[in-house]
Amino acid sequence: MDKASKPPGPSSIEARNRMLAARQRDTGAEIALRRALHAAGLRYRVDRTVLSGTRRRADLVFSSDRVAVFVDGCFWHGCPIHATQPKANGLWWRDKLETNRRRDRDTDRRLTEAGWHVIRVWEHEAAAEAAARIVWTLYRRRARSR
């Protein structure tokens, strides 16, 4: 997708309203995960830049453990189970969503190369299960650093 390409206008009032209602942070999935992690006694930073010189932000960051958690929306990040392809302005959306996926892979690679552990959670995942994965990862990383 050409960075200069301007997004097309909404195909309907309903589509416009859906886009306006889509949150970038503090989504239901993020809040549920944060509650589960907090209940497990964990503390973290919210919505933090993890790659200096970029606008890429992790939803949850465990700085001392170098763990970055991203809660990915099924539509925006191409969930293999729930991803959909809009019919209106289809070519533009296909390019936009593929750019998101490429950026996710690049972010994962760059963080891993910098010594971070990246965890991606789909918005449809149960918060308790995702929290258990994160707790287990933190436990393993902390055990290795002793």
Give the structure's gist in a few sentences.
By secondary structure, the protein is an alpha+beta fold. The chain is 46% helix and 16% strand.
What does it look like?
There is one protein chain. It contains 5 helices and 4 strands, in the order ααβββααβα. With 146 residues, the chain is of the alpha+beta class. The chain has a single domain, classed as VSR Endonuclease (Endonuclease, Chain A, 3-Layer(aba) Sandwich). A 4-stranded mixed sheet has the order 1-2-3-4, with helices on both faces. The protein is globular. The protein starts with 12 loop residues before the first helix and ends with a helix. The mean pLDDT is 88.
Secondary structure topology:
Layout: H1 13-21, H2 28-39, E1 45-49, E2 57-62, E3 67-72, H3 74-77, H4 90-113, E4 117-122, H5 127-144
Parallel strand pairs: 3-4
Antiparallel strand pairs: 1-2, 2-3
Helix pairs in contact: 2-5
